[in-house]
Amino acid sequence: MSAALIRGVSRSLRTRVISAGQRRQASGHGPEYNEPGGYLFGEKPTPGVKRVKEDWERPYLWGMTAAFLITAVGLYYKPSNNISDWAYREAQLRLQERGEMPEYTSVPRDRA
Description:
By secondary structure, the chain is mostly helical. The chain has a domain at 56-97. Helices cover 54% and strands 0% of the residues. The protein is built from 3 helices and no strands. It has helices spanning 3-26, 57-76, 83-98. It is flat. The N and C termini lie far apart (85 Å). Keywords: Electron transport, Membrane, Mitochondrion, Mitochondrion inner membrane, Respiratory chain, Transit peptide, Transmembrane, Transmembrane helix, Transport, Ubiquinone. Pfam families: ESSS. It is found in: Mitochondrion inner membrane. InterPro entries: NADH_UbQ_OxRdtase_ESSS_su (IPR019329). Complex I is composed of 45 different subunits. Interacts with BCAP31.
């Protein structure tokens, strides 16, 4: 390859990289990083003054609590989808249909 061809290819690659970088930087709307100020959510606590909650905070808290409780109760009472549980129920149903109910007796284990 000739040196002119290599220079031409590298120049076109450089302009593509630079133009892509310029497009990305042009879309910014402010500083990319906020320096930490030491206060949660930027609210400076003042001694002796109670924090005023915004209108959305109380419904959000109640809504998230209700959603958590509904999910917990729903998961607790969720039917079992385990294959072994299904097979056990199916076997019990088939035995009842045939009129056979096995009786299990406990067998003492030998302690060796």
